[in-house]
Design a protein that fits this description.
Layout: E1 4-10, E2 19-24, E3 27-31, H1 43-46, E4 56-60, H2 66-69, H3 72-77, E5 83-86, H4 88-119, H5 133-139, E6 143-145, E7 151-155, E8 158-164, E9 172-178, E10 185-189, E11 212-216, H6 230-244, E12 248-251, H7 257-270, E13 278-282, H8 284-295, H9 302-309, E14 320-323, H10 326-332, E15 339-343, H11 353-360, E16 367-370, H12 379-384, E17 389-392, E18 395-398, E19 402-405, H13 415-422, E20 431-435, H14 439-453, E21 465-469
């Protein structure tokens, strides 16, 4: 097929905003359409889409994290009318993710408008939401569920299939095949590569052949802690905070990370390694997503299926409260003693975690436990790196709370796991592109591939186009 190219429209030279445009003989497919979350790239969310949205025939969505699906309402508002193809679980979860994002966009815009009005100044971005709940609602009917392994043809001459990525519930790696029998080509898009031996989900799919490969490299320069240490570190975080008499705040993504934290907390409680403490999941979206998990038990690994069938669900244990209303959320801060508060957003860029931070970050007896990646420029990254003063809801707070971190929770493959995944290929791809990583991580992964396998990998920059077949 002549005229095949990839344009890297996001997550190129940075981590968030995943979007890759695949052109096949003039037909356009978009791989992901994510929100930029690093502060220095936020303006990209407001920019016109690099190509006419109506010219895109389908979106192939790897999973429902906001940095992969969060700009879909903007794409639809701009004129996209094609199908959004993804797994059924992703379609179900994306509904909550996009509606929640839209509500936060509207709330944040209103808060900024009022604050700027009081301060008599204009902010760097429009005092309007990036998109509204109505925009998100118009996006939802475009979702079409595709089972793992099912093959379909979104544009003539291109066969697409989704394969379990082992990253979050419903996450997929996407394989695109095109050309005739004399010149058949395969492109594999890794999406976010999961990890082996993680709880709840199955291991990531490994491919043995790809002519072209785009691979994420978020942790291409680092190794995660041994997952076996998670229970010890989490138990110590709970016990030390309880001894101090404060609250343990866990900023957490509503999707996957929250459910995994609950998995380990329930395991520690049942083993008697931590006392019964009040545990709050203060995120309506996390509550809804947990229900989606229960709808898709077919995606669980063997251990998780055994736990569920024996009545030991990690999502139900004494002391656990799923918080839905604002009133319930506010009442948490009136409690005495120690509570574990799991709330979004995972990078502290919005949501209820910011209210809990405002109430606890100045308390020496409280602790903030990070269990996920904190992108450059986010509030979470500032706190994690030891900032003594931070701004929350327009006010300055002195940080006195302890800052803790557990890296082993990551749902992303680390350096060696990425190498393990790509080593499933029996031969080097014609072209290999490293995306979804900060420059040092992507370059480190490229060096590792050259050193260990003798493969050359390109690290595309934002907006770069690579021609695959003439």
């Amino acid at each position: 097929m002549p005229g095949v190219s990839l344009a890297f429209l996001g997550a190129a030279g940075n981590v968030t905003g995943s979007a890759t445009l695949l052109e096949l003989g003039g037909r356009r497919l978009l791989l992901d359409c994510g929100l930029f979350q690093e502060r220095k790239y936020l303006e990209r969310n407001w920019n016109p889409f690099p190509v006419e949205p109506s010219s895109i025939e389908a979106v192939l969505l790897t999973h429902a994290h906001l940095d992969h699906c969060g700009l879909l309402p903007r794409l639809v508002k701009g004129g996209f009318r094609g199908r959004i193809l993804c797994t059924p679980a992703t379609a179900e979860i994306a509904r909550y993710v996009l509606l929640d994002s839209a509500r936060l966009q509207e709330e944040d815009a209103e808060q900024k408008r009022r604050r700027h009005e009081r301060e008599g100044r204009q902010g760097p971005f429009p005092e309007l939401p990036l998109y509204t709940e109505e925009d998100a609602q118009r996006t939802l009917p475009l979702f079409t569920g595709v089972a793992y392994g099912q093959s379909l043809e979104p544009v003539p001459g291109a066969r697409v299939s989704f394969h379990d990525a082992g990253h979050i519930l419903g996450s997929a790696m996407i394989q695109v095949e095109y050309g005739d029998s004399a010149g058949r080509r395969t492109i594999v898009f890794s999406g976010d590569v999961g990890r082996w031996g993680k709880p709840i989900l199955r291991d990531p799919t490994v491919f043995d052949q790809a002519d072209y490969l785009t691979m994420e490299s978020t942790y291409g320069a680092s190794l995660h802690e041994d997952p076996a240490s998670i229970q010890d570190l989490l138990a110590e975080a709970v016990l030390s905070t309880r001894r101090a008499g404060g609250n343990l705040l866990i900023p957490s993504f509503a999707l996957e990370r929250t459910q995994e934290v609950l998995y380990y907390l329930s395991k520690l409680l049942r083993a008697g390694r931590i006392p019964h403490v009040l545990v709050f999941v203060d995120s309506p979206m996390a509550v809804e997503v947990t229900e989606v998990f229960l709808h898709h038990a077919e995606l669980f690994d063997e251990e998780m299926r055994s736990l569920m069938s024996s009545g030991r669900s990690p999502f139900q244990f004494p002391g656990l409260t799923m918080v839905r209303t604002v009133e319930q959320s506010k009442s948490i801060n009136q409690l005495r003693g120690t509570a574990v508060i799991i709330a979004g957003s995972g990078m502290c860029t919005g949501g209820r975690i910011k209210h809990h931070l405002a109430n606890n970050i100045g308390r020496r007896e409280s602790a903030i436990l990070f269990v996920g990646y904190q992108a450059e420029g986010t509030l979470g990254r500032e706190i994690q790196e030891g900032a003594r003063n931070v701004r929350i809801h327009g006010q300055s707070f002195r940080r006195r709370a302890r800052v803790l971190r557990i890296n082993g929770f990551s749902a992303h493959a680390d350096r060696e796991e990425l190498l393990r995944w790509v080593s499933g290929l029996k031969s080097a791809p014609r072209r290999l592109f490293l995306t979804h990583g900060e420059p040092e991580s992507s370059q480190a992964m490229a060096s590792l591939l050259a050193q260990r396998k003798g493969w050359q990998a390109a690290v595309p920059s934002y907006g770069e186009t690579a021609v695959l077949d003439q």
